[in-house]
Design brief:
With 321 residues, this protein is of the alpha/beta class. The protein is 22% helix and 28% strand. The protein is built from six helices and 20 strands. The chain has helices spanning 15-26, 61-74, 137-140, 156-165, 185-193, 289-310, and strands at 3-11, 32-34, 48-49, 59-60, 78-80, 84-88, 94-98, 103-111, 115-117, 133-134, 149-152, 172-175, 197-200, 203-211, 214-222, 228-232, 235-238, 242-244, 275-277, 318-320. α1 (15-26) packs parallel to α6 and α4 packs parallel to α5. The model has no long low-confidence stretch (mean pLDDT 93).
């Protein structure tokens, strides 16, 4: 068992965590990043990325995260492979315990554990992920320009994604398992008035259909009659919400009704001084790589100010057995 100590302990290695690490390292905080089960975050399962600033050509999500990690390490970040299983924020330094048995102590704690899109869990969904099935219209909608697409869901996210997709397609179908939407009334009104959106009511997705070219259709079951049908499509966007990775903090930090960490408005500050949350773990509105990176920067700057204000002695990241 090894104890790792640092001025800035970062849990999570997506755009938010790595941006915090870059800024923290440059400020002399000697950050440690514990990478977790999915190093690099959701971008590691995203293929083409066209909307991250600074790249005129399409880049690959895994490559972008490799470059961010290399930059963080270049300026002095220590990347450690482990999965945090418990966190104690009741006293300084903050302490986390990894699945390996190692202990991680930080004068500040940056939580960047992200969020995962909720999936239907039906056959073909994972096999066709990135080949026609997506959980982010703003990320991938451009690739279906001029093609027939469907959106699956009935809440705000689903309606917003259907409306967004009309920027790229004139044939958008919303598929909902009930006969009424859960979305806000203003969004429902916009949906109903849009000439390029059709709604299929009382339809549940049974499985996704595809071939060597990718997604070709969605197999449906009528939730009232049980009748089966197939909706041909080249793109399907699952929009049934996101689940923030906040299981570790349910007993220690204030969460909202959807499980996101509550922060002081306009900042990454949680209710516990010295503990910061950034990226999708606290952002249920934008959920983009660039906004996650921005809040990671904010967390690092606030962590640096927190340390300076309390006069903590300068200390490099260390470990002891």
């Amino acid at each position: 068992m090894t104890t790792h100590t640092t001025r800035m302990l970062i849990i999570g290695s997506g755009p938010a965590g790595l941006s915090a690490a870059i800024y923290g390292a440059r400020a002399g905080m000697h950050p440690i990043v514990v990478q977790g089960l999915q190093p690099g975050g959701q971008l590691t399962i995203t293929t083409d990325v066209e909307n991250y600033p600074g790249f005129r050509d399409v880049i690959q999500g895994p490559w972008l995260m490799q470059e961010m990690q290399a930059q963080a390490e270049h300026v002095g970040t220590r990347m450690l492979w482990d999965t945090i299983v418990s966190v104690d924020v009741s006293s300084y330094p903050f302490r986390a315990i990894g699945d390996s048995g190692d202990i991680y102590e930080g004068d500040t704690l940056v939580i960047a554990t992200g969020a995962q899109a909720k999936w239907l869990g039906v056959p073909g969904e994972q096999e066709l992920s990135g080949k026609g099935v997506s959980a982010c219209a703003t990320c991938d909608g451009f690739f279906y320009r001029g093609k027939k697409v469907v959106v699956i869901g009935g809440g705000n996210t689903a309606v917003e994604e259907a409306l967004y997709l009309t920027n790229h397609s004139q044939d958008v179908t919303l598929i909902h398992r009930r006969d009424t939407l859960r979305a806000e009334r203003i969004l429902q009104d916009r949906l109903a008035a849009h000439p390029h959106i059709n709604v299929l009511w009382n339809q549940a997705v049974d499985h996704f259909i595809g071939d060597a070219t990718g997604l070709t259709g969605v197999a449906l079951i009528d939730t009232v009659t049980g009748a089966r049908s197939v909706e041909p499509t080249q793109g399907a966007f699952v929009a049934i919400g996101h689940a923030p990775a906040t299981e570790l903090f349910q007993e220690t930090l204030e969460l909202d009704g959807n499980g996101y960490i509550i922060v002081e408005p306009g900042t990454p500050k949680t209710a516990i001084p010295g503990v910061f949350a950034c990226g999708d773990v606290m952002d249920h509105t934008y959920r983009q790589a660039v906004t996650a990176a921005g809040t990671g920067c904010m967390a690092a700057l606030d962590a640096e100010r927190f340390v300076a204000a309390r006069g903590f002695a300068a200390a490099q990241a260390t470990e002891r057995v």
